[in-house]
Amino acid sequence: MHRYKMKPFKNFPQTVIPGDLICPIFDVDDDNKQEVVIRFLTGTGCKQENFRVNGKNVDIIVATLKGSVSVEEVPADIIEDDDQEDSENTTFVESHETTGGDASSGNSRVIKSFKVSVSNPSKFASKYVDDQFVNNLPQEGDIVLARVTRISLQRITVEILAVENSPLPIDSGVGSNGTGIIAAAGGSGASTFSVSQVSADLGETFRGIIRSQDVRATDRDRVKVMESFKPGDIIRAQVLSLGDGTHYYLTTARNDLGVVFAKSSNGAGEQMYAIDWQTMISPKTGVAEKRKCAKPF
Amino acid sequence: MSVQDRRRILGPAEAKPLQFAAITPVRTVENRDDGNGNKSGKESVFISTDLVTNANGSSYLEYMDGTSDQVLVMSSVFGPRPLRGSFQSKASVSIQFKEVTLEHLNTGEIKEICTFLTNVFNAVINVEKYPKSGIDIFIDLIQHSNSNPTEEANIVNILPTCINSITMALVDAGIEIIDLVSAGSKDNSVVAFIRNGHEIVGIWSDDDNVTDISKLIEECKAKYLVNKQTLVQYLK
């Protein structure tokens, strides 16, 4: 990841272990004689912690993982709302910092935000994935791959197999398998992990629900679940919320979301291919079935 | 030689003895905190991580006192795994302690150790990062030979190594922790620290007559700093 050559980044540690201090949450820099306030946001692998230094409380970003530090600029428009509410906080912190003593002179300040994150490239990075693994948990807005386990008129129940752009941890987040210590509720395959093998019977995967209203964006009240998904289909969906205790709430109401892989005749036939957004056909038998397909490209 | 021995089952006539390759000693990375230990630099720690293939992270620690004290501990970390039941916004950490060879401790003591370790690591693991999940930590006491046979002393001697071992396993697993937690022991007490000894995350005391608690903490802190330095040395 790009490392910035600005002054405040020079003191950044390259590699860290948990507990190492990375940077304060605010810093200042002179960019063409204009004062730039740099705000650091916590990304993956770090946490904002309060330290008491010389009688003052200072918020510092500390590493929570072993790995290398990367800094990424966050475009201003994304966090504009956030900036507004924090602007008072900004001046407050500056007045407490020795470097920010002349910052309150009132001329226009530029606030830049950077996301600091720690990643462990050696263990978890894969050449197929450009984002770093830190943990595999689905979060709001993430795209996940899931398998349909049960359908009803109102909802589709799925098990989440993987989060896109984050490689699986060794035990694939579902426990362990084979010899050795087995986690309390047993486990399924880690090194032997494959999408088709993760079992729903053991109930070890993170589960999700797609309500029938969330299947597609248009005509959402007339969705027929039976004509959208079948048990066994592999789907691509987006996480709406963390949901309740047992299920994440997912949606496929986007062109690029929906069924990715499906077999005909309720899984007895061969793999089908999408010919439009609501039809898949089996290339040998020519049988067409209805699905809510994901746009592949 | 022409007389065939019919009483024994012999191998084929042209059999050759098996030839094995010469045994080459396995080289391991060792980390010894020479000179810093209290007992004239004889304390030593061996650390190894990522041994258990199907765990997310694991560690193996050998702690050797200058005397006959020896603690071998292995920990493995599984998860985060999905939890069932009501919604949990934070991870629930569970720690299982087990003596895998000889069993000296009774179930009540093991339960106490588990509760103590769980409390320590709940304070250190960034549990907000793992909603709806459980993190399972298994810690196996492989060997503990001790010159002092009283059971209280046993627990106090193994706890710092257990804490170090879990910390290393968590780092290996890539579970977010706010600092490396380690501990020091003195007499019949163990104090676990983070942030270079500025914060205490756990106190275990089997001592009925502790007179000066701040002195005890200072002495434990000194040992904590040595232990932590060893972990840092291994990780860097």
TrEMBL record, chain A:
Broad class of where this protein is predominantly found: nucleus
Highest taxon of the lineage: Eukaryota
Molecular function as annotated in GO: RNA binding
Region annotation Disordered: where it falls in the sequence: 78-106
Keywords of the record: Cytoplasm, Exosome
Domain Exosome complex component CSL4 C-terminal: start-end pairs: 137-242
Keyword presence, Kinase: no
Family annotation (Gene3D superfamilies): 2.40.50.880, Nucleic acid-binding proteins
Chain ranges of the Exosome complex component CSL4 N-terminal domain: 18-73
Start-end of Acidic residues biased regions: 78-88
UniProt GO BP: RNA processing
GO cellular component: cytoplasm; nuclear exosome (RNase complex); nucleolus
Protein's name in the database: KLLA0D19701p
The species this protein was found in: Kluyveromyces lactis (strain ATCC 8585 / CBS 2359 / DSM 70799 / NBRC 1267 / NRRL Y-1140 / WM37)
UniProtKB/TrEMBL annotation, chain B:
Subcellular location: Cytoplasm; Nucleus
Keywords: Cytoplasm, Exosome, Nucleus, RNA-binding, rRNA processing
UniProt record, GO biological process: exonucleolytic trimming to generate mature 3'-end of 5.8S rRNA from tricistronic rRNA transcript (SSU-rRNA, 5.8S rRNA, LSU-rRNA); nuclear mRNA surveillance; poly(A)-dependent snoRNA 3'-end processing; rRNA catabolic process; TRAMP-dependent tRNA surveillance pathway; U4 snRNA 3'-end processing
GO molecular function: RNA binding
Listed Pfam families: RNase_PH
Start and end residues of each Exoribonuclease phosphorolytic domain: 45-176
Any one GO CC term of the record: nucleolus
Family that this chain belongs to: Belongs to the RNase PH family.
Protein name, as recorded: KLLA0F18304p
Organism: Kluyveromyces lactis (strain ATCC 8585 / CBS 2359 / DSM 70799 / NBRC 1267 / NRRL Y-1140 / WM37) (Yeast)
